[in-house]
Structure formats: structure tokens, C-alpha cells
Amino acid sequence: MSCSPFRELGSIVFTTLSALCLTVWNSPDAFAADAYVLGADSQVRAGVPQGKVEKFEFTDSTIYPGTRRDGWLYVPAQYDSSKPAALMVFQDGNAYYSTNGQVRATIVFDNLIHSGEMPVTIGLFISPGDRTGQSKTNQWSASNRSFEYDSLGDAYAKFLINELIPFVQNKWKLNLSADPKMRAICGMSSGAICAWTVAWERPDQFGKVLSHIGSFTNIRGGHAYPALIRKTERKPIRIFLQDGSNDLNNLHGNWPLANQEMASALAFMGYDFKFEFGDGNHSGKHGGAILPDSLRWLWRPETALPKPLTKDNLGGDEALSKVLPDGGQSGDWELVGEGYGFTDAACADGKGNFYFSDLPKATLYRVGLDGKPVVWLEGGPKVSGMKFGADGKLYAATQGGGKDDKKKIVMIDPESKEITDVATDVSPNDLIVSKAGWIYFTDTGAGQVAKVPISARGMSRPAPVAGGINKPNGISLSADQRQLIVSEYGGTNVWSFLVGEEGVLRAGEKNMELRTPVGRADSGGDGMTTDTQSRYYVTSHVGVQMFDSTGRMGGVISKPTQKGCVSVGFAGLKHEYLYACAADKVFRRKTLVQGALAFQ
Asked: How crowded is the C-beta side of 69, counted as CA atoms within 13 Å?
């Protein structure tokens, strides 16, 4: 009885699993099924120009100090230095570049480049780093391999992008394409999850991934990827996955199940992917045998991306596909304006005009329904947060500037542009104005939230209404205004408070958990906004994190730039555009939802 009857679903080819299969994975007899052989495209062919391979050593890493590693550079015979070439990076390069091994990537490159089935591509084959000071004949045992390959985060991406690729590019004077669609990355086992991590962290640099027997297991937290994929806006990555039913099952996890989880998550989010699942074990035999077809698929022309498979079958769960058209994809942000000092204080009026502050220049801008910014107020205070009230006035948290250069809560009359002090002797960061007429503002340094009525004029040191928050920053209200929501910049939580009589806050709880970057204890929870279904959108180090009304994470919307964003707000005719203040720029993107204005 076979444990691997194949069936195909979209771009997934996988084996149906059962308890019997779990037993077979541990059976020595099962490995006899791993009978993959290299085809004609993996053999040297007469008349096909052969590229050159040069070996090098790299020891100058500051990201992985004290390491040495071997590398091999493949340059195809068709390379023309006057034209940008594609680039493909291979982890565990010693297993890939060899002309008599299981994979034989350089021979396959020769044949496919010659036939025009892949572009002229520079191959960079790199071994993992070693810190023992000894020359390694077995690169699989390099001392830094697991640390570099299995760790999540952007360290290895920085190593490639900032150190290794520039070193190779300068040494051989290579003309490499900067287009991520012309850059691929590959690896097997831990090298495969490493390849995925590089593209995941920097899709602006690598748009294609080839994963062989990928270790998407809990060696150093890689088992989290399927969950992260499901709750992160689809990134512009094309990925080919390969694994076999006789792959590893050990203390770190089950490789066949982990790769199927990856494939399922990629399908759910509508990625451009293919999964070849056979009966191989933890080796390069299957991946090597299908390498030519893998590369043909990986380098094929761009096609329209599929929609998330479950977009119309989510029930009450608030996935990103309910917020972003077609599930969204990184790069859907539209540039509104640039060249500012530092943008912040996103907000909108009832007509859908968007407002933001160029904080250091003490200038406020308005963006009309046409999406074009114009100066609205110059020479006023430096505004870090602002919202309109039910009375039509604009209320702002200032960081000095203006007449006396002191931090305040002020009111700005939209018609006359007259500025009136509401509260003084305060240190406000951001604010929200309730329909009932209360201004709530965060005091980041004190870890508190305070409130003041919009009718106040020059009130000194209004009393705090909540405290003990780790650097409170962004602040918003639920659509029904029964809850006040506050983000932590210094921690990982978003707090929820019940709003009582006279605007009193009670029953504060850490209702939402913000995702943090690998290696950081703080989320960078910053500005936030709310839609009419009481979904909350919180800017952070990893992107704009979306939570449903019950506090469950719904997904992370991509940052408009690598610099991130600090403030978001809905605007537009139906308040359907999500605007983002991102360093010196402002962006927007259309959504499927409608923003909730507190004053309405």
C-alpha cells in the first residue's frame, strides 16, 4: 500500500497523509522509494557554452564577526557587462555548484541560459560561516550554519545585501540587476528556510525563492512562518517548494508536515507558488532531479496573482482579504507627497480631506479628494497628533513652536486659523476627540493617558485617567465609542479601556498583542486609527497591524517604505483610503472598508 498517492490542487502537488505514513517515515525501507535521477538538462551537452566558476574566501563580515566561508562565483558564457544580469544566491553553495553532485546547478544554468529558458544569471554559491578557525571539508558542520540559516530576522539578509554581494560585485566588476524580480535565492534544509527568510525580510531585494527540503520547523522558531504568512499582507515573492514524505521527523518537528503547512498558508494568501511533494528523504536527490523544471517555473514570465483561496469563506474572522482588495500585496501604496522633514498626525475631516503635519517645519497640510497635498497652515506649533471634534474645530497635541514654544493641547479654527490654548503644562504625544466632547491624550514619558474637555481654555495639568502603560503613544476609540484603545511604543500591548460617565476610564486590560521584530522587545506601537467595524490599525516596527473588535490579530499590512510609518488615518470621499505618514513621505492605498471618525 502506497503512502503517497498524488493529487493536485492549484499549484500544490502533495501526498495525502495518514497515521500509516507517519510510521513509514521512520521506516528504513521507506527510503528505497527515493529513486530520483538526473535528467538530460543536468548533463553537459555538446555545443552548449559553459560558464566559468571561480572560488573565493570571505572573512570580512561585521554582521557575523570572526567567521570565514568559501564561495564560488559562476559567470555564464553569455554574460555581457554592458547589460544588467540576473542574480541567484545559493546557501550551502558547496552542495549546489559541483558538477558531479546531486544538484549540478552550474550545468543546469548553462543549458537553460543557452536555450533561453532562464535569463543570463550570475550564480553566487556561498557556504555558511565558521568560527573555529579550521578549514572545513564538510560545510554542513560549519559552526555558524544554524545560527545564520535557522534564525529569523534580517541579519542574514543584511549580510548578503550589505556585505557579500557588494564584495563580489566590486571584486569582479559585475553589472547586476537591482530588480527583485531578477534576483532569486535558494537553499536546502536550513539553507532553504534561510532563503525564504531573506526574501521575507527584503522582498525589495529578492523576489524569487527556491526551497529544497526546507526546515520550516522549530530549530530556531521557523515553525512560526505558516502563521506569519497567513497574517501578513502578501509579499511580492514567487516561491518553489520541494519536499518528500520520507523527510525528517525529529525533536525539531516534522519536515513533511511543516512544508505542507507552508504550502497551505501560501495558497491561503494567494502567493505565486508551486509545491512538489514526493517520497524523497532529507537529501538533494529530488530537488536536484527537478532543478531544471524548478528554474523554468521560477523564471517564467510574470503572471497575474491568484486571489486568496478563502476570501469569501472566512465567516466572522477578520482576515486582510476583508480589508485589502484581492488580499493586497506589498507595493500597493501610492505616493501622495514627499520631501518633508518628518510627517505625523494623520487625520481627516467629514468631507474626506486628509490632514498631516510636517512636524519639524511646523507646517500642516491638507490633501483633497484629488490626492494632492497643499499647505494648510504655516508658522504654527509643531503638531504630533491632531483630530477634528464634533464642533468642527481641529484639536492638536503640540511639541512646542508657535508663540511661546511650549507643549500644549490647542484648538485650531479651520476658517480663521486662529489657535487657542486648551491645556498647558502637559507633554502630549497623540490624541483622540470623542463625540461627547472629551480630548484624550497620551503622555509617553509619564506612561499615562489624560483627558480634558474641548470647552477648556488654558487648563493647567489636567489629571491623568489611566497609567502604568509602557510608553503610550497612539490612541483611538471603538466605532461605538464605548472603548478607548491605546498602543504601547515601548512594549508589546495595545490597551483597551471602558469609557464611562463623564469620560471616566475603567477596566483597563492588555487586550491586543503586537507583533515585534525578531530580536526586539518593543513593538514600536505608534499611531492608530479605527474603521466602522471597530477594526484597529496600529503602526509598528513590522508594519500596520490590524486587530478585530475582539482584539484578535487579523494581519499586518506592509510598511510603505523600509523606514516604516508612524501615523495612519482614513480619508477620501467614503473614507476608504488608508493614509500613512512615513518619515519624509505620505502614502495612501484604497481599502474595502470605511474609516470611523470619532466626531461622527
From this structure: 32
* Angle formed at CA 33 by CA 101 and CA 260, multiple of 5 degrees: 85
CB 591 within 8 A of CB 576: yes
Q: What's the pLDDT score for residue 139? A: 75
Q: What pLDDT shows up at residue 214?
A: 98
Class of domain 320-590: mainly beta
Task: Please name the residue that has the C-alpha cell 500591548.
Answer: 493
Q: Give the distance, in angstroms, between the CA of residue 234 and the centroid of all CA atoms in the same chain.
A: 8
**All cell numbers assigned to 415:** 476658517
Residue 440 DSSP SS3: strand
| Sequence spans of domains, the chain | 6-131+142-298, 320-590
Identical fold, 6-131+142-298 and 320-590: no
CA distance linking residue 85 with residue 157, whole number of Å: 20
Residue with cell 550545468: 107
> Mean pLDDT by 10-residue block, N- to C-terminus, for the chain (600 residues)?
33 41 35 79 97 97 96 98 98 94 97 98 97 73 94 97 98 98 98 98 97 98 97 95 98 98 95 96 97 98 73 68 78 92 97 97 97 96 97 97 89 97 97 97 98 96 96 97 97 97 96 94 96 97 96 94 93 97 97 92
Query: Residue 372 has which C-alpha cell?
Result: 494632492
Q: With CA atoms as reference, report the closest residue to 388 among 364, 405, 369.
A: 364
Q: What is the length of the chain?
A: 600
Return the pLDDT at 1.
Answer: 31
The b/e string for 115-132 (b: 16+ C-beta within 10 A; e otherwise) is eeebbbbbbbbbbbbbee
Q: What is the CATH number of domain 6-131+142-298?
A: 3.40.50.1820
Helix (H) or strand (E) holding 229: helix 225-230
Determine contact, residues 359/385, Cβ cutoff 8 Å: no
Contact status, residue 474 vs residue 497, Cβ threshold 8 Å: no
Distance CA 5, CA 181 (A): 34
What pLDDT score was predicted for residue 5?
Answer: 27
Q: How many whole angstroms separate alpha carbon 383 and alpha carbon 394?
A: 11
The enclosing H or E element of 122 equals strand 121-126
Question: Could you give the CA distance from residue 337 to residue 348 in angstroms, rounded to a whole number?
Answer: 16
